[in-house]
């Protein structure tokens, strides 16, 4: 049905600058322009990033790599960054964040998606996302990067923490990075070693690369401080669930190894117990502030107390002036007591109290 | 004239009343989903369909059937965009969809008033201080005296005339509300405060006029069509919308049985009391589903004021329960036909143009 091929549509997208300007200044409605563009190709949009699924392959028992081609609106994406993938379910556009395992100049990207037990979105993606389907993505974010300095690199990943590291590793090797690189991937059990064949092939081709696996489900399989101490490397890149990352960071620092350390973790933020209204951590993403707060007062009050000036009006949940995105964590509606934990959904700051650590787009 | 026979509620009753409405709200929230999302997308499609077909027909010139149909369709599209789409989306009714196209904080509608102005004057001021004298500017918009409790000024003597002008230019009245010109005249705010707002209003005005009265007529010229037919069609469509929105909105809070409140009511106001004020200050219009859609469901003004952030398509089903709750608590549920309610609005406008009546 598409009038243009995606490759051609990408060129068209580049030439839409005047239209973008007209929309930005309010002369045209972006949604209307998008509607017309979609007739040319289902993925073509003025500003929003849409991509078509070009291939899918299993890279572990529970991980699927999908190759996508973007519509030309992806700006300066790099491997190792994350991107939101949107999927509509029951009328709600849910977003989940995945790492870019590959980015090429012709607009192709690769994402790897791990099955989450009970995860509605990941299961839908793994089982039913078909080649040819068009999906929406957000702009990429994150500043995980290959170390600039000379020296051996140690990559430490647990579970799907492998994905950003793999992206960086592929890039570095392709650029001819020659110092020693060691990658340790900890997974729960056999069969979960994602991209194992490719990693072995890379190791065979690049003498400076060493790849190892650890199985946390087996006795003595979990990484220990002693094992970490034995692994070579000056610069550490670390990615995995929060517990894993915090522990490994601790060991690395205690051992007093110099070099650099970059870490990213992805577990859900801790949630308060029902009766507990104790101390929580609040992160205001846009202003880059992190403060401690409590589970009683509204986020609006707490943001103001820490010096921010969020937009607001009624302060009682009527006017929606204070609507803001909940990026991560759980909040409690002060009126109904209902808990709300869907990432990237709008909440009203004046009637939401943190119920555990939260990150909001403020 | 405000002859409401409401029972006064004790504090305990007020609390229970609020809880019942909260529970109702919660039930509806939990039930939102696919059907609501589909509905608002359909409304948007209908808006586009009406506006684009209407504009296409206008290009055919003065031929009466096409000019008339084109104008009506364009007017209809603008009414739908204004009410069922713009008004409701900007209330955040569809924020839960997380679709940028229906994000309440970002939506910009097709009228001369910048959406941000309206989000303040309407979502914040009007919906928080509904019908509180001196707080809610929507009570008469500063040019009309509708309740005996409002202090009379000689200016009100000609208010039937002011109202007529306001009805004809309703979208401009809504737009300049945010500029607080009355306060500027009285010297209570400075020119400097108004200037940036006036500039933003100007920019939006230029865009709206540029679109309706310049770009489309020019397009017609390029296509060799009749410029005047297009121009007049656009003008008539905007006029149509002005009159319709005026009609609906004045029937929402200024009918015979609508109550106004003294500012003291706000002191220590509980949630139950806030609900009660919304119920007493609003009035519904009865009619078929076409009326409800055309009014953006503001025909269910009571439900809209109780639950401004619930998708308006739910108001009809909510109304059944709200009516029962109101009955149970001995509150008058103000509902009537469009013309019946409007007649009482006109009477208010006529009666309160003079000072003495109210004190009788
Ligand atoms: S300030 Fe009005 S809803 Fe939060």
From TrEMBL, chain A:
Superkingdom: Bacteria
Annotated ranges, domain FAD-binding FR-type: 46-147
Ranges of residues in domain 2Fe-2S ferredoxin-type: 278-362
Pfam families, sorted: FAD_binding_6 (PF00970), Fer2 (PF00111), NAD_binding_1 (PF00175)
CDD domains: fer2, FNR_iron_sulfur_binding_2
Protein name in UniProt: Ferredoxin reductase
Species: Ectopseudomonas hydrolytica
